[in-house]
Amino acid sequence: MSDEPSIPAGENQRPTGERRRPAGSVGHPAQHSPVIEPPLPSASLPAAQFSRHAISRRELLKSGARGASLLGFGAAAGFLSGRESKDATRWQIDPNQCIQCGRCATDCVLEVSAVKCVHSYGMCGYCKLCTGYFEPEPINLDEGAENQLCPTGAIKREFIEDPYYEYSINKELCVGCGKCVKGCNMFGNGSLYLQVCHDRCINCNICSIATACPAQAFHQVPLTKPYLLRGKGASAK
Amino acid sequence: MSEDAGHKNASASPQRRSFLLAAAWGGGIAGLGGLTGLTIAKLTRKQTAAPARKPVLGDEFTYDVARFQKSDPALLRYQEITRFASGLEHARALAVAADAAIFVGGNGGIRNFSAKGEAGLKISLDQPVYSIALRASGEMIVGQLGKISVLDASGAVLAVWSGLPENLLPTSIALAGELVFVADAANRVVLKLDASGKKLGVIGARDPARNLKGFVVPSPYFCVRMAPDGLLRIANPGEHQIEAFTLDGDLEVAWGHGSFAVAGFCGCCNPVSFDVFPDGSFVTCEKGLPRVKLYNSTGEFTGLVAGPDAFPEYLQAANAGTTDVLGSGVYAAIDPQGRVLVLDSVSGLIRIMQRKPLDHE
Residues 276 to 305 of B: which have CB under 8 A from any A CB? Predict the structure, then answer.
């Protein structure tokens, strides 16, 4: 033993640069160690030495099968985790940030936008002159098309008792332009507002309306609470 | 270290290395698989294909009231002589004392100003102030969510009245001698109270036997004032009317109609506030289209104090869709000099408007 500080024998002793050096070669610091590593296959390697490290076809298949199953397992795990993170949230509009710019109607990837007007009945004033339903200067306060604000006729009005009327949205006709929402917000109490309807939304990973929204009113919300509703008894009907 | 032990360790090393090598390979393969899976998951998501952008919406999809936001200068009967900031968020209560001192309430409490707009007393209150009425003694009757308080001139609380509705939303208070009338927007009635706050009755509740349909109050704007003819005037905003009631709650007369044209009350629920001149004529305020208008004692439109274009901050917020729908009121009060004080909640400014001299004067 030399006077140098003793280092326990083991792999840490071996400089990495020497890992591929054939065992037993002259000058190896661990030359007293047995052969521990297969040399790289080389044409210059003696055949006997090479055959010592050759693997059988069975072993190859076994290793291949193991590798393939690991790969499959990893792929499945990755796929599921990818799916999981996407499924945990939904896109939604914060009605307090929405400025009714009309982009919801034009920027959805769907042919007819998944954004629709919704109505918080608990907040609604059931006004006879609803500014979300009527043109600013209606000829009459009745259901005549010329008096209605909605260009697609998506709002239905029903008499409750004098002077109250109930207003409901036909989602099939609503295109999410927000015209009625603007009328209700400007003059009423904001019981009409826009929401992404999840029976239609395909939950793109990057919502194109969110990208276009000038008010940054789109947010990813938990799947467990996919609507941002106003008022008591609010519903996304 | 003995040579044996060294040899043992050295002989264990290759197995460990093989194991680590195999584990590294396995981990690598599994990681590669994970990445592949993740990529597949991403690729199979519904992609945000560059949307085939639909045509720009036509005019029929635009809510356009711009034509109503300009006022006819020929209708203006008042001019602004000064303005000052209330210093309050959501300022919504405005009252003038007999000495022309101005009191403004909102989130944070009450601010007092001289008739010229010089800042005076600041009273801090935890809850937002919705209404203020001033007694001749200098006491303030202050309406807040769920309560009415009496404060002395320095802002010290003298009393908090009990026995009122828990959900009371006192948007306006009027005094008639010892009687106090509180417009409760939450319950859509006017409460009649004595000087100590004891409830004496309710005015305006739905009662077909008395030909009372009830007040239609869609949003927290509901105003009551005492008129010089001894009748209460109460806004029925959902009906676009100002109604006259006896102090016992009988409906006497009503006037007003809904219209975006200047002579009517616009939107779904206006006027949001008004005051009565000593001659029985009215100054009214509307939200949505911020308009301060004049009507004679029978309800005929006689002119404008301020048109929508006098409130640029308000219009900007309204057109941009950023108005707080519950904090966009416009309020007026008449001071002893006949000037009209106008407060709009959006800018928080108080404008002092003075009557223009008539052409023949």
Answer: 287-288
Q: How far is B277 from chain A (nearest CA, A)?
A: 27
Report the alpha-carbon distance of residue A173 to residue A168 in Å, rounded: 12
Contact B284, B265 (CB under 8 A): yes
> Cβ A74–B26 below 8 Å, yes or no?
no
Q: How far apart are CA A99 and CA A101, in angstroms?
A: 6
Superfamily of domain B73-355: TolB, C-terminal domain (2.120.10.30)
Query: What is d(CA A149, CA B155) in angstroms, rounded to the nearest whole number?
Result: 49
Suggest the residue from B56, B62, B259, B268 to mutate for an interface test with chain A (most A CBs closer than 10 A).
B268
Domain ranges of chain A: 43-87, 90-222
Residue with tokens 């409490």: B109
Q: What is the C-alpha to C-alpha distance for residues B350 and B128, in angstroms, rounded to an integer?
A: 18
pLDDT tens across B282-330, in order?
A: 999 999 999 999 999 999 999 999 999 999 999 999 999 888 877 889 9
Q: Which distant-in-sequence residues (6+ apart) come within 8 Å of B329 by Cβ?
A: B92, B221, B272, B273, B285, B287, B344, B345
Interatomic CA distance for residues A230 and A193, integer angstroms? 8
ipTM score assigned to the predicted complex: 0.80
- CB contact at 8 A, A105 and A113: yes
Encoded tokens for B338: 């006949």
A57/A75 Cα distance (integer angstroms): 26
Side-chain-side CA neighbours of B192 within 13 Å: the count stands at 16
Render pLDDT for A156-203 as a digit per residue (tens, 0 to 9): 999 999 889 999 999 999 999 999 999 999 999 999 999 999 999 999
Q: Looking at the complex, does the CB of residue A52 fall below 8 Å from at least one CB of chain B?
A: no
| Residue of A148, A149, A146, A168 lying closest to A157 (CA atoms) | A168
Residue A181, token pair as written in the block: 């929402």
Write down the domain spans for chain B.
73-355
Mutate to test the interface with A, among B36, B63, B221 (most CBs of A within 10 A): B63
Say yes or no for a CB contact (<8 Å) between B55 and A207.
no
Check CB contact of A213 with chain B, cutoff 8 Å.
no
Buried b (16+ CB within 10 A) or exposed e, B335-354: beeebbbbbbbbbbbbbbbe
pTM of the model: 0.77
Cα atoms in the Cβ-side hemisphere of radius 13 Å centred on A166: 8
Residue-by-residue DSSP string for A68-116: HHHHHHHHHHHHHHHHHHHHTEEEEE-TTT----SHHHHH-SSSS-SEE
CB count, 10 Å around CB of B175? 16
**Residue A52 with chain B: CB contacts under 8 Å:** none
Encoded amino acid at B332, one letter: A
Q: Is beta strand B282-286 parallel, antiparallel or unpaired with respect to B291-295?
A: antiparallel
Continuous H helices in A168-212: 179-187, 208-212
